[in-house]
Design a protein that fits this description.
By secondary structure, the chain is mainly alpha-helical. The chain has helices spanning about 1-15, 20-25, 30-40, 50-65, 75-80, 95-105, 105-115, and strands at about 45, 50. The protein has seven helices and two strands; from the N terminus they run αααββαααα. A hairpin with a 2-residue loop joins strand 1 (about 45) and strand 2 (about 50). Helix 4 (about 50-65) runs antiparallel to helix 5 (about 75-80), helix 4 packs parallel to helix 6 (about 95-105) and helix 6 (about 95-105) runs antiparallel to helix 7 (about 105-115). This is Ankyrin repeat domain-containing protein.
Amino acid sequence: MLAGLLWQRLNAAMENTWTPAHQAVEDEDAETLAQLLARGVDPDEVCDNMTLLTHAIDMEGDGALQSGNPLTVRTAAVLLAFGADPKLPDPDGKTPMDLALDYGHDLAAKLLQGHISE
């Protein structure tokens, strides 16, 4: 089953330039993301000018704005648990905290602050 999910993620990533980990973030699929990270994917991977963590916060913030659903931090929390650098800016210079503050994503800001303070 996992092999099938990973193959599906790989095919989706090939179609739209996302890596499998970035596709999992795009889909807000924390379980698949955790499996990929456990298999050795770099939690600070960059694709399409976004780190995995900036992508996660962007998806969580923008998704909530568009859908009206509550903000979440599932994928961001998984990335931080696997060692993503909370201070690492994306190639455009935006940090995860910058995005959290831009979206008014207080949950993400608190989560990031906890990891920055460590």
